[in-house]
Amino acid sequence: MNSSPTGAIERTPDGGTVRFDRLLAFPIDDVWSAITQPERIADWWPPFAADITVDLREGGRIVFDWPDSDFPTLEFTITRLIVPTLLEHSHTSPGSWMRWELDATTDGTRLRATYFIPDIDMAIERGDLVGLHYSLDRLEPALAGRPSAWDTVAFTELAARYAKPDSHSA
């Protein structure tokens, strides 16, 4: 039940945004829990095992630590919070941010995920777009109680599709 499974890129004078719009057949409180509770985030967002902490308040932090990897710890600051409809936080690059907007619908929840980054080409090149897409693909099975493991082959195939010039709208 996806309304736009592929991210839409919009270039702006100060960078660009990537937007995903997904319709999920789950209640808004369940989706909210999946995007804000550490044990549920672990089911769909990170590519490998992570110790995740969330201090769910404006000014609080979302931290991904990777105990089995040399990957650097990711730390985001929550900048806006309206439970259960809006979560906005900083992202890895200076000036970047991520916004999660939820709306209850008659069939479940509409999730709009918007990622702003000052250097959109760098974000595409380093895999931010395909990573977000693939994580969102894993959200629905996680909501259904059947989390799917990170599939490197599927991720690589998705990355190849995004590498094609007309793979997403501009």
TrEMBL record:
Boundaries of every Activator of Hsp90 ATPase homologue 1/2-like C-terminal domain copy: 26-141
Top-level lineage group: Bacteria
Organism: Paramicrobacterium chengjingii
Family (UniProt): Belongs to the AHA1 family.
Protein name: SRPBCC family protein
Pfam family, one: AHSA1
InterPro entries according to UniProt: ASHA1/2-like_C, START-like_dom_sf
UniProt xrefs under SUPFAM superfamilies: Bet v1-like
